[in-house]
Design goal:
The protein is of the alpha/beta class. It has 17 helices and eleven strands. The protein has an eight-stranded mixed β-sheet with strand order 6-5-7-4-8-9-10-11, with helices on both faces. Strands 1-2-3 form a three-stranded antiparallel β-sheet, with no helix packed on it. β2 and β3 form a beta hairpin. The radius of gyration is 46 Å and the shape is flat.
Length: 453
């Protein structure tokens, strides 16, 4: 029994020596050569807790403590003020370990209030160790350079990439150095042109003209045929000297009526056209006369916001002619340059919609006065020869002054422009080459053919 308690006591003394912590809850401070108390016990302060420490100036620096009671009693003997010699020895000790007690309490970010802040001075952060991190950070940042805006020819060329990849590669392979200039070559050229939707009549006219020019110029080298073909195609597009510009002048209001079947991109094209005209310095207004299709007014309103132009609209199901009447009246009062009118998508065989179109035209003729007119038919280039049929039918019921060919970037048959402009004698005003608001380009025959090749 006694051996057990003796062993237990030895273990407690061993823990005190090793860790400075007693097993009964007492706490021992780390050794300080100038601290008088070996340890303090939690049990001692359970009944005599210290509220305040005050110094009695009349008693040579003797410290009194205020305990839980209201009376003042001298502090225990082991809580006395150190002598001056002990304080000097303490300072020497802390100096020997490079420790400044006052500095340890100071905030390194504090600045003297009586010293003005100077940007030229260097306020060093004692805990900052890393200019190298800033250098590494900036090394990792990639500087993204803004791509230069493409010019007109580059934009058209990029938009015709599908047509060019198919059409041009076939033509170049045909006009190789070893090809023989004979009927077989011309027959193969006809097949290439027809596959690009240039149309039968336009293809025959181009091939016949090429055959005549080869004989007239005595062309022997097949490589000379390639630039000659481009020249003939440009001449065909410009044969009738069609005006590819909108009928707009600086004096009168210009009214553009946009028509077409559903799904060709009519409303989107109106927004792009308004954006183009506004960038040319024109004041533009839109008329939401497509009151038949659900959400058509909201869709046009979004494009009006993107183009930053005004829009006149009624409620869904309203009379389109009434919308046009109010829009003309507002455009005149506000001295607007161009009024673009959206209409419901319609087929040529829908009699009620075609009668509605006639009513809109009468409203414009009656109230527009000296305003200039353009009736633009929007066609989807991806429909191929069906676009030619739509133009024929619409020409029978209304006067079409120009065409806007959309989605030309999404088809490999960009040659559809030839039968539309050459065979049906209607000028192409704009071509759509993308979904962006700035992807509507004015049509120019020379630029188109050059980009095609």
């Amino acid at each position: 029994m006694f051996d057990f308690f003796r062993k237990k006591k030895n273990e407690e003394e061993y823990e005190k020596d090793q860790y400075g912590q007693a097993s009964d809850g007492e706490y021992y401070e780390d050794e300080d050569p100038f601290y008088d108390d070996e340890y303090y016990s939690d049990e001692y302060y359970e009944d005599n807790y210290v509220e305040e420490i005050v110094e009695d100036e009349s008693n040579d620096g003797v410290i009194y403590t205020t305990y839980g009671s209201s009376s003042f009693e001298p502090a225990p003997a082991n809580t006395h003020s150190p002598s001056e010699e002990m304080m000097e020895d303490r300072d020497d000790y802390y100096d020997s370990i490079n420790y400044d007690y006052n500095e340890s309490l100071a905030d390194p970010y504090d600045e003297p209030l009586n010293e003005p802040y100077d940007d030229e001075l260097s306020y060093e952060d004692p805990y900052y160790e890393g200019d190298q991190y800033e250098e590494e950070y900036y090394d990792e940042v990639e500087v993204v350079e803004e791509e230069p805006k493409l010019g007109f020819f580059e934009r058209v060329r990029e938009g015709l990439v599908k047509t060019r990849d198919q059409f041009t590669s076939q033509v170049k392979n045909l006009f190789t150095a070893n090809v023989k200039i004979d009927d077989d070559m011309f027959d193969e050229l006809e097949e290439i042109l027809i596959s690009a939707d240039i149309g039968m009549n336009s293809t025959l006219e181009i091939v016949d003209a090429l055959r005549d020019e080869i004989k007239a110029r005595s062309v022997k080298d097949s490589e000379e045929i390639y630039p000659l073909l481009k020249e003939i195609m440009v001449e065909k597009l410009d044969r009738d000297n069609l005006n590819n510009e909108l009928n707009i002048n600086d004096k009168d209001l210009a009214i553009i009526l946009v028509i077409g079947v559903n799904g060709v991109g009519k409303t989107t094209t109106i927004g792009k056209l308004a954006y183009n005209l506004k960038n040319e310095g024109k004041t533009v207004m839109l008329a939401a006369a497509d009151t038949f299709r659900a959400a058509a007014i909201d869709q046009l309103g979004e494009w009006a916001d993107r183009a930053d132009v005004e829009m006149i609209a009624h409620t869904e199901g309203a009379d389109p002619s009434a919308v046009i009447f109010d829009a003309i009246k507002s455009a005149k009062s506000k001295d607007v340059d161009v009024l673009i009118c959206d209409t419901a998508g319609r087929l040529h065989n829908k009699k009620n919609l075609m009668k509605e179109l006639e009513k809109i035209n009468k409203t414009i003729d009656t109230h527009a006065g000296s305003a200039t007119r353009d009736n633009l038919l929007v066609l989807d280039a991806t429909t191929g020869q069906n676009a030619v049929n739509q133009l024929r039918e619409f020409k029978n019921v209304t006067d079409i002054t120009g065409l806007i060919l959309t989605k030309l970037d999404g088809t490999a048959k960009g040659g559809i422009i030839f039968p539309l402009q050459v065979e049906l004698d209607v000028p192409v005003k704009y071509i759509g080459l993308g979904e962006g608001i700035d992807n509507l380009e004015k049509f120019d025959s020379e630029t188109f053919v050059e980009a095609l090749f």
